């Protein structure tokens, strides 16, 4: 519904009220004379509440001209119904109308029309609404038929309202977009960091649920889907899919590790040692000499009881230098980091943002 305060002015001619005058161009009266003469019985169709202002007295004015022309003006506030369509909310425009009609007199008894067409409607240029932009006012008139009483003249005050979008961008669209982007952070977190990824996914899902609930709490309970519902629920699906994505990654990782464990139990690892050599090391072996054996891999040791002064180490000979071994170690660490990122995470880093950007392009091109 909408509430409008207006000055409703009626013009008609009643020769019974004419009077001879040479000095007075018109005579003005208050509301007390209205009860003693005939006035149009105009009412507001589809109004819910309406009243005539009465502070400090009834805001009614009656002006009579010598030739019988009458101006009847009153200040009225009316709350009327407006059939709104929220399918494009909050990117919507609404067209509402205030309808005036005679209650008792049909079109054969009383003709209602706008005195100057669209010029009959004058508005204050300073009018502004917090949620809407008033685009235009215009007037129309047509006949309305009632099966039991007949045809009546009906006047319309039509106006178009364009909803301001900036408020909803800050309160709804921007937070929802941030939650979707925050859910993508989990794709860059180590797949073994279960608490971090699970808590991030649950937090974004709950936050999206709160945003959806807050928006619907302030909206009429309509039976069709609104534009904001489409955006929020698609964003919710993206957040929810990011949680499912980690569930799939964690499950596939577990399955892969289980297979590798069974493979190691079935085929013990010999570490691919082609040649081995046994060397005797005593307790006085220098550190530099020990470093020169960095390429050897320990396989077995002789118990201390058998060799109290010397230690037998089974080492595999290696032809690599220290620098090459260091590069191999770095490569192994890099491989370990790459292996900690599942292939699903790699694809999700591209698929999720690309799909969401594509959805936004379609959404804003259709509804804006």
Task: Tell me what you see in this structure.
The protein has helices at 166-183, 194-217, 227-266, 287-291, 322-339, 343-367, and strands at residues 2-13, 27-29, 42-45, 47-52, 60-64, 69-80, 93-102, 132-146, 150-163, 276-282, 310-316. Helix 2 runs antiparallel to helix 3 (227-266) and helix 3 packs antiparallel against helix 6. The protein is built from six helices and eleven strands. The longest helix has 40 residues, at 227-266. Mean pLDDT is 82; it is low at 273-321 and 329-338. Strands 1, 2, 4, 5 and 6 form a five-stranded antiparallel sheet that branches. The protein has a four-stranded antiparallel sheet with strand order 3-7-9-8, with no helix packed on it. Strands 10-11 form a two-stranded antiparallel ribbon. It is rod-shaped and about 125 Å long. The protein is an alpha+beta fold and 368 residues long.
């Amino acid at each position: 519904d909408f509430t409008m305060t207006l000055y409703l002015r009626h013009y008609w001619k009643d020769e019974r009220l004419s009077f001879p005058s040479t000095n007075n161009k018109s005579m003005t009266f208050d509301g007390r004379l209205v009860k003693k003469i005939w006035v149009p019985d105009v009412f507001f169709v589809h109004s819910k509440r309406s009243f005539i202002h009465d502070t400090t007295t009834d805001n009614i004015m009656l002006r009579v001209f010598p030739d019988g022309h009458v101006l009847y003006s009153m200040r009225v506030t009316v709350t009327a119904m407006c059939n709104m369509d929220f399918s494009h909310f909050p990117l919507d425009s609404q067209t509402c109308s205030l309808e005036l009609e005679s209650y008792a007199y049909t079109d054969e008894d009383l003709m209602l029309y706008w005195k100057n067409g669209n010029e009959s409607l004058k508005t204050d240029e300073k009018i502004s609404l917090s949620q809407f932009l008033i685009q235009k006012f215009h007037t129309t008139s047509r006949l309305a038929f009632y099966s039991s009483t007949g045809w009546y003249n009906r006047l319309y005050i039509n106006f178009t309202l364009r909803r301001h979008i900036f408020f909803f961008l800050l309160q709804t669209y921007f937070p929802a977009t941030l939650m979707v982007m925050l859910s993508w952070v989990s794709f860059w977190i180590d797949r073994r960091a279960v608490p971090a990824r699970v808590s991030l996914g649950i937090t974004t899902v709950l936050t999206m649920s709160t945003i959806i609930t807050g928006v619907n709490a302030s909206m009429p309970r309509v039976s069709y889907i609104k534009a904001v519902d489409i955006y929020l629920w698609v964003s919710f699906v993206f957040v929810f899919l990011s949680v499912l994505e980690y569930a799939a990654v964690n499950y596939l990782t577990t399955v892969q590790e289980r297979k590798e464990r069974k493979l190691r139990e079935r085929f013990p690892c010999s570490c691919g040692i082609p040649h081995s050599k046994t060397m005797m090391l005593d307790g006085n072996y220098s550190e530099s000499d020990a470093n020169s054996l960095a390429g050897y891999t320990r396989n077995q040791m002789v118990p201390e009881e058998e060799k109290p002064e010397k230690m037998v180490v089974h080492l595999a000979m290696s032809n690599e230098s220290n620098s090459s071994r260091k590069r191999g170690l770095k490569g192994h660490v890099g491989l370990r980091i790459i292996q900690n990122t599942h292939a699903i995470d790699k694809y999700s880093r591209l698929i999720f943002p690309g799909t969401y950007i594509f959805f936004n392009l379609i959404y804003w091109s259709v509804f804006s």
